Amino acid sequence: MTAFDAPIVFGLLGPLLVSDPHGAAIQIPQAKQRIVMAALLLKANTTVSCGQLAEALWEDQAPPNASATIRTYVARLRRALGPMGTRLVSRPSGYAIEVHEAAELDLRRLECLRSEMREASDAGHWERVALTSEKALDLWRGIPLEDIPSPALCRSVGAGLDELRLQLVTSRIDAELFLGQEHHVVAELRQLADEHPLREHIQARLALAYYRCGRQAEALDVCLRARASLVDELAVEPGPELRQLYQHILTANPVLDSTLALSSALTVGRTPRGVWQ
After folding, report:
1. Alpha helices in the chain (DSSP H)
2. pLDDT in tens, 102-147
3. Are residues 169 and 90 in the same domain?
């Protein structure tokens, strides 16, 4: 068994997950203790001050005895963790959760998988990119910090994790397009394009997938609708990727049938200004 086959000990990509190294779940029923645990995990192996914990717990309405109350929460959390309580350590300026291996915390495991994806992409190993991105996406068990009633913590990480998940999805789809699996991704791309009408990269990938599936008219329509959304919502014209793709689809450029369409054919280039007309 490799480190990444072992159970995750701490998880934030969904409801708070705490387990022992054998995978047995540890319940933390009290909301305030879950907030403290999440705040510490977000900065694992780093000291989190009482002030930072107070912000996570009460934002700008901390009680006068906040430090004493936090000590009580930490003591109760340590008891709830049982043998794993040794991971929660007191330090002169605050508290910390010790994570011994990157694979123990889902956020750290995610970073390792992203690094592996980048290496595979740079090497052109698209099967590995697709597999690794799928492993990364499988780490999500629901909405991150789903049962952590702390607006401050959710604001600090929520949008970033949503964006990261979308990047992972599009990276996997890109890999599948490199592998010639456009028929398998059209439906997913169509849903993503509907959800993100201003994301040019997603619109371009949907148009390319349509074209490769023999649906040239629909591919052109995607480009035109994407331009209309950008002009109406942001008062901007599409960028080079979408403009050049539209030109290639319009002329049925054979380059779109090869993997070069994903690496060189959509690079920055000049397109006639009247191409959308």
Report:
1. 31-41, 50-58, 66-81, 106-122, 126-137, 151-178, 182-195, 200-212, 216-234, 240-250, 260-263
2. 899 999 999 999 999 999 999 999 999 999 999 999 999 999 999 9
3. no
Single-letter amino acid code for the residue at 62: A
pTM for this prediction: 0.87
Whole-number percent of the chain with pLDDT over 70: 91
CATH code, 259: 1.25.40.10
146/63 same-domain check: no
Residue 128: CA count within 13 A, CB half-sphere = 13
Alpha carbon dihedral 47, 90, 15, 30, in 10-degree steps, equals -140
Find tokens 């629909």 and name the residue: 218
Long-range CB contact pairs, 113-117, < 8 A, 24+: 113/139, 114/168, 117/171
The CATH number assigned to the domain holding 100 equals 1.10.10.10
| Domain encompassing residue 41 | 3-104
CA-based nearest residue to 47, from 85, 81, 90, 10: 90
